[in-house]
Amino acid sequence: MMYWIVFAFFTTAETLTDIVLSWFPFYFELKIAFVIWLLSPYTKGSSVLYRKFVHPTLSNKEKEIDEYITQARDKSYETMMRVGKRGLNLAANAAVTAAAKGQGVLSEKLRSFSMQDLTLIRDEDTGFVLKFG
């Protein structure tokens, strides 16, 4: 775990230093050597950096980090509830609108038929006209 935490910091720093120092001779070779030093079980570079820099910093800022995580959790819950309510309201409005429009279209279609049209319905299987009433 120490390696991945140190490697994450390295990757973040690498993004900035690539822009500034990529012209430096042997820059990329030095980066490779540094990653090998971090990974090597003989040098334990990531463990050294973690114990010397990362762990003391995280220990000093532990309460602040915990408060930030709590605030983020509370805000995310509130945001999800608000977005969920809006989504349900939009879905309900869309369903009601679709039902109202669909009912209006159906009633218009039925109004266009006269009683004569409804009593003379052709049977599609036999081709005969069925007379009701």
TrEMBL record:
Subcellular location: Membrane
Transmembrane segments: 25-43
Keywords (A to Z) from UniProt: Membrane, Transmembrane, Transmembrane helix
Membrane topology: Multi-pass membrane protein
Pfam families linked to this entry: TB2_DP1_HVA22
Top-level lineage group: Eukaryota
Predominant place of localization: membrane
InterPro entries the record matches: TB2_DP1_HVA22 (IPR004345)
GO CC aspect terms: cytoplasmic microtubule; endoplasmic reticulum membrane; endoplasmic reticulum tubular network
An example molecular function term from Gene Ontology annotations: microtubule binding
GO biological process, one term: endoplasmic reticulum tubular network organization
Family: Belongs to the DP1 family.
Alphabetical list of PANTHER family matching this protein: HVA22-LIKE PROTEINS (PTHR12300), RECEPTOR EXPRESSION-ENHANCING PROTEIN 2 (PTHR12300:SF29)
Identification of the protein by name: Receptor expression-enhancing protein
Organism: Bubo bubo
